[in-house]
Specification:
This protein is an all-alpha fold. The chain has a single domain, classed as Alpha Horseshoe (Serine Threonine Protein Phosphatase 5, Tetratricopeptide repeat), CATH 1.25.40. Helix content is 71%, strand content 0%. The protein is elongated, with a radius of gyration of 20 Å.
């Protein structure tokens, strides 16, 4: 007889692309960034304006807003993360990497910003063909609960995906009584 935890672990093995929260294994609850800095609230407002501009594909203006947000509060990791996204969209990966490294140095280890920055940085590494660095960052993001990072880790390991598929087929046949 198996326990619910045993079934959850087995489900993770058989369904590697399923987010852990759907499998019965406890989900990691990430912290939000919060700073004790007099300019933090204004920085957040400028950052929201920058995000709106970026969504409207006004990337130069968005970068200006993110830069202003960082001038007001230079320790705001999410502003670095968002500016990095705008740089990525402008095909400026070096600037994006600089901002992502700064975001990761400022963000707490279990924050949403850290998770997002790891995914962004890993994506840049993957595009460059540096799968080892990509794998490391995707693993960090996956540990923080990113289902996208988890999918990328499986994609970077075709043998794991093949083994999981074979195991799923064997267990399905065992369930239905097929040989």
């Amino acid at each position: 007889m198996s326990t619910s935890h045993d079934r959850a672990v087995l489900n993770q093995i058989l369904n590697p692309l399923m987010p852990t929260s759907d499998s019965g294994i406890a989900e990691i609850h990430l912290e939000s960034d919060s700073l004790e800095h007099p300019g933090y609230e204004l920085s957040l407002q400028l950052e929201r304006e920058g995000v709106a501009l970026a969504e409207g594909v006004r990337l130069d203006e968005a970068i200006e807003k993110f830069t202003k947000a960082l001038e007001v509060c230079p320790k705001n990791p999410s502003a670095y993360n968002n500016r990095a996204q705008a740089y990525r969209l402008q095909n400026k990966p070096e600037k994006a990497l600089d901002d992502l490294n700064e975001a990761l140095s400022l963000a707490g280890p279990k924050t949403k910003t850290a998770c997002q920055a790891y995914v962004q940085r890993a994506s840049i590494y993957r595009l460059r063909g540096d799968d080892d660095k990509a794998r490391t960052d995707f693993a960090s993001a996956a540990e923080l609960g990113s289902s996208f990072a988890k999918m990328q880790l499986v994609a970077l390991n075709p043998y794991a995906a093949m083994c999981n598929k074979m195991l799923a087929e064997v267990f399905e046949k065992a369930k239905t009584g097929e040989d």
